[in-house]
Amino acid sequence: MTPPASGRPWTNSLAIAGWFTLAGLAIHMLTNGAYGYFRDELYFLDCGQHLDWGYVDHAPLVALVARVGRMLFGDSLHAIRFLPALAAAAKILLTGLIARELGGGRFAVGLACLCALAAPVYLALDTLLSMNAFEPVFWMASVYVLLLAINRGNPKLLVWLGVLAGLGLENKHSMLFFGLALAAGLLLAPERRWFAGGWLWLAAAIAVALFLPNLIWQIRHHWPTLEDLANVKRVHKNVELSPLAFLWQQVQIMLPTSLLVWGAGLWFLLFHREGKRYRALGWTYLAVLAIMMALKGKSYYLAPAYPMLFAAGGVLWERLAARAWLRALLAAAIALPGVAIAPTVLPILAPERLIRYQEALGFSPPKTEVHHAGPLPQYLGDMFGWEEMVAAVAKVYYALPLGERAQAAIYAGNYGEAGAIDFFGPRYGLPPAICAHQTYYFWGPRQYSGAVMILLQSERRSAGRFFASVEDGPVLDNPYAMSEEHYTILIGRGLKQPLARIWPLLKHWN
Q1: Range 357-378 burial, b when 16+ CB lie within 10 A, else e
Q2: Which residues are 488's β-sheet partners?
Q3: Which of 304, 336, 380, 401 could form a disulfide bond with 376, CB atoms 3.0-4.6 angstroms apart?
Q4: φ, ψ for residue 478 (rounded to 5)?
Q5: Among the listed ranges 35-49, 131-145, 274-288, 372-386, which one has the minimum average pLDDT value?
């Protein structure tokens, strides 16, 4: 049950959750304007200009968030990353609220929120505009509603669980896995009785209704997301981990010392006399862990589940660590490593200093995709080189004879390059890019004939099979960009077949 928020208004458990929430927001707003736009952000901003009920490789909500954020705040780095920073703050607040609902007081709330603030994976993901920043909010808001229903004996509250689950599915499809895990957790706990009533089924119906527009889009477009996922699995794009390696990466990305808290939290939920009332949450974590292992998911796919374990661990340690010095030692065990590791995941050091710092610290976030290589971790390396690439394309474009320039298309090899052309290009007077990668494929080749095309990330040998002549342009070689963004811009002339005819052959979903 929720304890009363006793104590002074500025230092009670609610206030402590609030202070950590503000700290999380401040950290991201002070640091998220460095480096540059991330590859996926440029794609999502473009999707925001083409609002739809679905996209090849993501659910639709992030496009709407990009559109709304851009309209309200502008398109600077701070502006497009403000809503993700708010989501980071909301996650911390929910962590504190869950700790209180589990029976925790000031120390439990503070320790749980500290873990949610310091976790390297959250610091990295919440810096960027993506669905990953919002996913923990939907998962943990669902958990909070579930706790309210348990503690108040009021299954009517589960209606809000349906709303959150439906919106969560429109944010990221992995909400389905969490929903299945939550159902399994309820079946293995006394709350299985809710399946005999109507409120849980009403919640499920609401979730399905909210998800239905995206589902219809998938059906109408012949399930592109499933095709995309099948391609990813077929080419082994992602790093595939054994169960033991997956668990070890959980320890790394959540902050190694925080295992003391979330491990204790899992034990509390499954075995402790007080925590067993909330056993459904412990089974939920184990179920979603098993699902992610079975599907060979990326290690951070499980990250949204940990705030509830931080909260439960905070409650247990509040019971066990009565002495002030022991509580201080436990907080220091989270805070000090968190401060040390933060510069490896936040864009706050100059790139060359970051490389040296990672080497000195002996810590680098684990790799999640096989072929992404560069001097920096991918989520930082993919912030470099985009505007320089667009400036180089502009030089090529304006060097074309006027007659060629009027019909020249800019063909991007992937969505990052296409997004960069569409975002930065208007400053240089460039036309929008065409691209057959991911959702850009649906937007088509427009009216271009292919007579003249500026080719980004195309191999000369491959281009030679399609064009009558191929000319080398400038070389892109930003030292901090990912390896795939080091290439020669090509100019192809005389496409051997009409572009509209070969467009289906260019489709590239992975």
Answers
A1: ebeeeebebbbbeeebebbbbb
A2: 475
A3: 380
A4: -65, 125
A5: 372-386
- Of 446, 510, 466, give the one whose Cα is nearest residue 484: 510
Pick from 189, 320, 324: which is nearest to 260 by CA?
A: 320
pLDDT in tens, 482-510: 989 999 999 999 999 999 999 999 999 98
pLDDT in tens, 9-18: 778 999 999 9
Taking 3-state DSSP, the helix, strand and coil percentages for the chain, each rounded to the nearest 5, stand at 65, 5, 25
Sheet holding 434-435, edge to edge: 434-435, 408-412, 452-455, 487-495, 467-476
Contact 293, 243 (CB under 8 A): yes
- Residue 415 CB neighbour total at 10 angstroms: 25
CA 368 – CA 231 distance, rounded (Å): 16
In degrees and rounded to multiples of 5, residue 125 shows phi and psi of: -70, -35
Closest residue by Cα to residue 341 from 320, 362, 318, 315: 362
* H or E segment and range at residue 469: strand 467-476
